[in-house]
Amino acid sequence: MTDFNQLWSSLLAQKKESVLDQSNQGWVLENSKIKRINSADDIDFNLHSALMFINSSLDYGLHQTNWQQHTIPFEDIQLWSPTSIDTLTLDFLKLYWPLAAINHIQKEKSFVLVHMAASLDGRIATKCGDSKWIGNDQNLKHAHRLRALVDGVMVGARTIEYDCPSLNVRHVEGENPVRLVLSNKLQNLKKLQPIPEVETLIVRDKEYQNKKIDSDNQDFLFFEGDNEKDKIENLFKKLFSRGIKSILIEGGAQTVSSMLRTEVVDVVQIHIAPILLGSGKHWACLPEIEAIAQSKKLKNTFWCKMGDTQMITGLL
Ligand SMILES: NC(=O)c1ccc[n+]([C@@H]2O[C@H](COP(=O)([O-])OP(=O)(O)OC[C@H]3O[C@@H](n4cnc5c(N)ncnc54)[C@H](OP(=O)(O)O)[C@@H]3O)[C@@H](O)[C@H]2O)c1
């Protein structure tokens, strides 16, 4: 039986580990605890409940045994388990294990995951901005787990205005990520609940730099570039160089859509509530297309249960 509290603590510890060197190939999960492996000798296949490799094509002959490789939307990571693994443990591993390991993958840009709760007709809020709560309690706890595993959490100014969030991890064990808020006009930023010990960065265009902010304790980053794509790519480069190497984008629609348009998003995760709003904000507003063949198709998708409903995760 998996001890999920112990497994969660082990994932948090893994996120903080020093980055893997050449001799490490990944991790093994044994009795709800995770440890590094350097070779096949570190693995007792009768004991272990899962394996994760990064940047590696090794499988230690697992494909010839009763182990299976799972589809996850992380191209540099392989996840294996015995076929007898239970669904709860497997879903937990698929959702959180790669994120705990993401900083070990050598990349030149920050990893970006979008997570939102949408109605069956793809809306994330009513026309007047109400969105509490489209997702259920399990989704809320899940969002806090994601925050605990990333370096930064990003939202747009109107999400602050409507939702008055704190963007912290109060429902789970873990550390709060840096808070990143996109806002030129800097209105209503007082609605972002203050957490003195957590860094908050406001991102805006240089032309607004003299505009006075109506809130304290915040630093600024500026968009640089002549167009939306340059501005956002430069922003992610700056965040990466500040050590913010994994970013969770929680909305709203305008923010997520600009990140999708500029193609900086790696993984999309949508909790789908069994409700119809019929009007309101769609989470993805992209340039019009004529043919289905032109659509953005998610790869390596998997579905998992979130209480009374489902969530889809996929690679863009
Ligand atoms: N269901 C869910 O999972 C979920 C999650 C989050 C939010 N929501 C809901 O979504 C709604 C808010 O979404 P929204 O689409 O109206 O707004 P939003 O994306 O939260 O915020 C938009 C604002 O962010 C700033 N911004 C965003 N992208 C920018 C960019 N690329 N460059 C510069 N500034 C940028 C601008 O602020 P300035 O005008 O200050 O420049 C813009 O007006 C709320 O109703 C909220 O409750 C739902």
Summary tags:
316 residues; alpha/beta; Dihydrofolate Reductase, subunit A; 2 domains; nine-stranded mixed sheet; 6 helices; globular; binds NADP nicotinamide-adenine-dinucleotide phosphate
The CATH H-level superfamily of the largest domain is Dihydrofolate Reductase, subunit A
Distance between the termini: 34 Å
State the total count of DSSP E strands.
Answer: 16
Q: Quote the beta fraction.
A: 25-35%
Side by side, the strands of the main sheet go 11-10-9-8-12-6-13-16-15
Query: What's the overall average pLDDT, rounded?
Result: 93
Q: What's the tally of helices?
A: 6
Assigned CATH architecture of the largest domain: 3-Layer(aba) Sandwich
In CATH, what is the class of the largest domain?
Alpha Beta
Which regions contain 5 or more consecutive residues with pLDDT less than 50? none
Helix coverage percent:
10-25%
Task: Give the overall shape, derived from the CA principal axes.
Answer: globular
Radius of gyration computed on alpha carbons: 20 Å
Structural class: alpha/beta
Ligand kinds: NADP nicotinamide-adenine-dinucleotide phosphate
Instruction: Provide the number of structural domains.
Output: 2
Largest sheet: 9 strands, mixed
